[in-house]
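Q: How would the structure tokens look for this protein?
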Amino acid sequence: MLAKDLKPGSVFVHNGAPHILESVTVQSPSARGGNTLYKFRARNLVSKQKADLTCKGTDNLEEADFQKREVSLMYSDIEAVHLLDSADYNQYSIALADVENEMKYVCEGLEGLVALIYEGECVGLQVPATVELTITQTDPGVKGNSATGRTKPATLETGCLIQVPEYLKQGEKIKVDTRTHEFLGRA
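A: Here is the predicted structure in token form.
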């Protein structure tokens, strides 16, 4: 897979171990004929260490060999998240610290949740690109405010805090992009 095609959440092999991509920074060339550089911040799925990697857009990275299993959330405690495989009812656990960014968008009954299984052990969690969540707390909108432009903070049912347009009220269901952490629209 080409480096320019990688997106946050992609899984690839680096130094013989699977890594999940957390962020991408694109650095355009300053000189004519220069190469665009892609700077990746990834996390090793086995050792949990962070890794920084710089590649040209045409560099080829090996896709990691692991299983993707559709799962549902059973419960979460202070140490781990416990998941149930939708196909064969196997149970998987993963440390809460390893998936705290993904858990901002996971609520009960979420469809499309995928566990990354490497050598029989759950090493990561992928959430859908967009999720529908309910606003549990936000300041009330003021009559006469424009429907565009200004935003306000809103707390979602999972505890995640995002910026939403001023016209939205508490109790409304909205769509959120899990990759950019941005409001997409009403659900």
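The mean pLDDT is 86.

The chain is about 0% helix and 50% strand.

Upvote if useful.
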